Here is the input.
Amino acid sequence: MKANLVALVAGMVFGVGLALSGMTRPSKVFGFLDLTGAFDASLMLVMGSGIAVLLLPQWIARRARAPLFAERFPTYGRSELDARCIGGAAIFGVGWALGGFCPGPALVSLASGMTAALVFVPAMAAGMVAFRLWEASMRTAPSDGSGQPAREV
Here is the structure.
């Protein structure tokens, strides 16, 4: 329960920060991505501030024996930079450039009733569901009749 409350408060602070910084306005994002036109570098300050805020807690967490609000630190099965990772980053970047949203700001904009977010968020959710279905089909489909999956995901 305590971890859920901490997550809720952190998410709300994050959402307020996104709204105040302008990251929920696609026009602001398009200005940041327009390197040859009306370039707006202010989102660089937002990203830099986010990194700066993370540095101290990250430094502390790397030296801690256990997290404060969980039994253990999470572990992740994959850490290599592969085609799947690069492809996902490319799709994320294209979606960000076309829609002017990334997932966090899109959800904040959806909560405010922004029309563009009312289109973007369901499309984003559909893409997530489609990926999960594709991923599941890749795990279950034999590739050569040997009973082995087509590829490990």
